[in-house]
Amino acid sequence: MHFYRHVISTKFRFLYLHVPKTGGNSIQQVLLPFSDDKGVLVHGQDGRDQFGITGPVTPHKHATLAEYESCAPGVAATHRVMISVRHPFDRALSAYFSPHRWPGSRFPEWDETAFYDLLDTPDLAPASTFLKHESGWRAPDLVLRFEKLTADFKAALATLGLPIQTAPVLPHLNRSPAPRGIWTKLRTSRVLCAEIETRFAEDMDRFGYSSVMETP
Q1: Distance in angstroms (rounded) separating the CA atoms of residues 83 and 31
Q2: For the chain, what is the total number of helices (H) and then of strands (E)?
Q3: By C-alpha distance, which of 34, 75, 65 is closest to 161?
Q4: What is the DSSP letter of 210?
Q5: Going by C-beta distance under 8 Å and a sequence separation of 6 or more, which residues neighbour residue 1?
Q6: What are the helix (H) ranges across 34-168?
Q7: Which pTM does this prediction carry?
Q8: How many CB atoms neighbour CB 192 within 10 A?
């Protein structure tokens, strides 16, 4: 199953696009009460780390901006579009080590072939594709970067004018079971880095990410 969840609010005029593995579950827990949508449970989801989203305009959990435009023409112009993003390399590693891929007591193991196969699945569709529709690429009004999610989200809440007295603490949901040592070692691989950053070159450019090999 692939869970692309989005939240739209007619009252507050915002549309949140959830790119998988960018902290979106936590964001949606806060935004849902101010939206037209509601959380739903299907296929054994626990309502915390895994849940679906449905609403009068939200067509389905795989919705893109293009599909929202199809259901509600002009929504990209009338609503502030907000999206959460993450460096493609870290996002890909997070997807590989996602808890739903290692159920129960199964311990994460590294399989390079399985990792490359995962890069071609909908779970890792480029973030930039979420913002494309028939008029072209729609630049987001608000970008929530996973690397500084708390600060970006606090600023977004103020911009949207949501009636939240204090900035909520974002829970860490869907936490990866991967030992940090494995993650750190993989993140130093120039081969993996080059492959992922080339595949996600548009995301790197659109959202201003530099190579992890250049990050101190």
Answers
A1: 13
A2: 9, 8
A3: 34
A4: P
A5: 43, 100
A6: 65-71, 75-78, 88-96, 112-118, 149-160
A7: 0.83
A8: 18
Task: Tell me if 57 sits within 8 A of 8, measured CB to CB.
Answer: yes
pLDDT in tens, 1-48: 333 346 778 889 999 998 989 988 888 888 888 887 655 445 544 444
Q: State the Cα–Cα distance between residues 183 and 206, nearest whole angstrom.
A: 25
Q: Say which residues have a Cβ less than 8 Å from residue 165's Cβ, sequence separation at least 6.
A: none
**pLDDT classification of 95: cutoffs 50, 70, 90:** very high
Give the Cα separation of 205 and 202 in Å (integer).
5
The beta-strand segments (E) located in the chain are: 6-9, 14-17, 38-40, 52-54, 80-85, 132-133, 136-137, 142-145
Q: Is the dihedral of CA 170, 176, 180, 184 positive or negative?
A: negative
Contacts for 114 with CB less than 8 Å, ≥ 6 apart = 96
Q: What Cα–Cα distance (Å) separates residue 196 from each residue in 2, 65, 87, 99? A: 20, 24, 10, 21
